[in-house]
Amino acid sequence: MSIFFTKTETGYSHINTGKRCQDFSASYNDEERTIVTACDGHGGNVYVRSHLGSKFASTAVIDVLREIERTAFYKAKKEAVIENIRLNILCRWNSLVEGHLAKNPIRMSEISKLTEAEILSLRKNPIKAYGTTLNAAMILGTKLICVSIGDGGCFLVKSGIVTPAFIEDEDEPVANITYSLCQDDAFSHLQVSVHELSAYDGAVVCTDGMINPYQNLSNFSTGLIAPAIMNLYLGKFEQLSAFVSQVGTKLGTGDDVSLGILVKGKVSIRAYSKAKGI
Residues 41-94: pLDDT tens digits? Predict the structure, then answer.
């Protein structure tokens, strides 16, 4: 049995300007697996449908991860399974975007405030309108699977210590530039890793609006993740949900925030018991 939590909140800068939330998070749980996601639709002018792109990203990764059998890593080499997951996620997201575009072509009202260069960019590649990041994690049997493209991050958790699941997660975003599912070379940047669950307590996924207020990974680990996991084991889901809302509406950088936590049902909570409450 796994314990899991997801929450998205609109950032106060978007609330003040009447801008819709571009983040999206979701969870899935059945007898075999638990999945959490945190996706961040881009905020640039050309990404006029990024709020949909983030939702499609969450749907795509859940759809793909739901199809993986527990025996997959015994029937084929791990590298082959990972390659298949990456390809299927990207294909599924593009299929959802293209299906939406076919039924809902981009309207002039959506691009009326864009420059000529931005409009030309969208005409050349309308999928760009849906640009988004994607971070997800799944517990399946004895495996912990992480998926990531773009900023925010996917992190492994053990005894209160948080480490990036991927090397790129250790880098701070530069000039608000991030990798995206809408890139032509998205496959090159979409990362998947598979870990033995016995080595970890679980995983955390988040968008940059959730981690950036903490400035560094150490603050993020001690100030949010350790107490958050303690709250989950104590059944204080509403308290954690309220705190995430506060980060979005009051305490954070003004950006939308999304957080997903996925932990094993049975771990030693001694490392989390000293965490300050949130």
Answer: 999 999 999 999 999 999 999 999 999 998 998 888 889 999 999 999 999 999
Please name which of 157, 154, 183, 186 lies closest in space to residue 167, comparing C-alpha atoms: 154
Beta bridge partners of 259: 7, 206
With the CA atoms of 259, 260, 264 and 267 taken in that order, what torsion angle do they form, in degrees rounded to the nearest 10? 0
State the burial class of residue 252 (Cβ atoms within 10 Å of its Cβ: 0-12, 13-18, 19+): buried
Name the 3-class secondary structure at 100.
Answer: helix
Q: Is 215 left (phi over 0), alpha (psi -120 to 50) or beta?
A: left
Q: Calculate Rg over the CA atoms of the chain.
A: 18
Q: Which residues contact 58 (CB under 8 A, 6 or more apart)?
A: 24, 25, 26, 37, 39, 134, 136
CA 23 to chain centre: 9
Q: Output the CA torsion sign for 97, 98, 103, 109.
A: positive
- For CA atoms 50, 27, 95, 153, the dihedral sign is positive
Query: What are the distances in angstroms from CA 268 to CA 32, 159, 160, 264, 273?
Result: 22, 8, 10, 10, 10
Residue whose tokens read 């669950």:
197
Q: Which residues contact 158 (CB under 8 A, 6 or more apart)?
A: 199, 200, 201
| 169 alpha carbon, distance to own chain's centre | 12
**Under 8 Å CB-to-CB from 121, ≥6 apart: which residues?**
46, 128
pTM above 0.70? Answer: yes
